[in-house]
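Annex B. Sample input.
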Amino acid sequence: MGPVASEGQLAFGDSLVAAGVLTRSGVKGVYGMGTAFVAAFESVDRFVTESGRGDQPEVYRFPAVFSLEYLIRSEFLRSFPNLAGSIHGFDGGDAEHAALLRDADGLDWAAQLTATDLVLLPAACYPIYPMVSGELPEGGRLFDVLGTCFRHEPSDDPARMQAFHQHEFVHIGTPESSLAFRDDWIGRSQRMMADLGLEVVADAANDPFFGRAGSMLAASQRERALKFELLATVSSEEQPTAIVSCNYHLDHLTAPFGISASGGGTAHSACVGFGIERIVLALFAEHGLEPDHWPNETRKRLWL
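Annex B, continued. Sample output.
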């Protein structure tokens, strides 16, 4: 069960739907995107791409599915089992098919399906690490990745979608270079959002670790200042939304895949993640539901 939406979040969602910016799918947190949203989405994604192009990253785009084996190795299921999305398929014959059709009448058809070796991608950067396995070149590696991600937290808050896009820049290198990368992008991403006319606040944060042990992990993450978020008012002033996340992973994602720094030293990683849908929603909330009427400077930066 996902977070309960506030009256303000519900009202913002209703206004987006009434204006044709979004369309509801019948499932909480899953939307169709109308003409205005698509135009803004494509422009924001291009804006993010151009902001990192000068660093000459390796560019990769990955599908919305990911290896179950790799998800287990990354320990995502240990930390966030409630957010994972598994993929099941039908492997039966005629008799099982008949049972599936019979069960489908009672909405219990999933009992006839079996788990595949795929899951839904939870974070855009995850496919990078098994690909990079081994020793890094001098200076490490830098990536530009975009992924369609899924997290099982249904909500009526339009800023908390179950299916969404992350555009990330990911650095894998030494502990020093990874931390420097994260710190640099805290400032860079703040300037980017200011260029779009968005007021944001950078704040130390933690991931939503699951269970009793998760509380200790979250406290440790905050204490070590591993994660910073840029918060903006989207659908609620009382509950601002994280639209950008700057993260220092230590060796959490490098060690499981045997990644070492040049010369065999310890490899760490860091990323900056832009929530494209959330940035678009922040623009609608700040500048109005008609992009044609947004401030000239914002439209200029987004090529609208």
